[in-house]
Amino acid sequence: MEFLVLLFKQRLLIQRYQQLVRCYWLKVKTLCLLLAHELKTSLARCDLCNNLSDGEFICRTCQHDIGRFNLPKGTNNLLLWPAVDKIFQKRKFDQLICYAPYIWPYDVWLKQLKYQAKFELAPLLAKLLTRCWQDHLSRSSQYYINNSLCITSVPIHLTKWQTRGFNQAHLIAKHFAQANNLHYNANLLSRIKHGDSQVGQSGIERRKNLANAFTANTQLLKKFSHVVVIDDVITTGTTANEISRVLKKGGVEQVTIMTVALSLPLKK
């Protein structure tokens, strides 16, 4: 009997020590996170001017100074801009929302994310898209019902995913959806055709390369009438058109293409 009492007391003592250790561990963990945040805030430098940036990737001054698209009236739908509308005359998507032209520093950032796996750029680029999206909503007369709207990203083929290890469009779209409390589904679209890299290809070559390259999950599409497709950059619109065709064939009523940058054609 005495042995059982002693065993019970020892067990209670062990549980008490475990609770104390757990409590101290949580306090130490919280303190470390606070210290890390303070260090990041006090030491972080702007990627562009190297001045202190209050923990952000770029400082507030550079955020205001770098160029971006800004339509004087109406929404942020660039298809309302005649010069852009002329580029995508045979489009199958309904709206085009881009933050900026494909110039410095966006071209550098997008290449660093895509080819150098600089993942800290994904939240920054998503933040830029969030500004563009919120500005678009404030100017648009359309009413967006969140339950019928879905965010997705331009998919890459499994072979490329295995080679690169990630999809930069997926990273940006995921952060964007979280920031705006919108439904995100990475499995809405799939790329079933593995083609060559589109860098440097003409419009005809791109269309041939992307013909029947994508498929959509028809069961998931039934839930949504408006799909926002996010990518890093739009050039000829071939990818956007092929994806829009697949989505509308599956029953989607409206397709919005949203990219960080728009690569404008060079003047001849």
Automatic annotation (TrEMBL):
Annotated Phosphoribosyltransferase domain residues: 196-261
Matching SUPFAM superfamilies: PRTase-like
Top-level taxon in the UniProt lineage: Bacteria
A Pfam family it matches: Pribosyltran
Family: Belongs to the ComF/GntX family.
Annotated protein name in UniProt: ComF family protein
Organism: Thalassotalea piscium
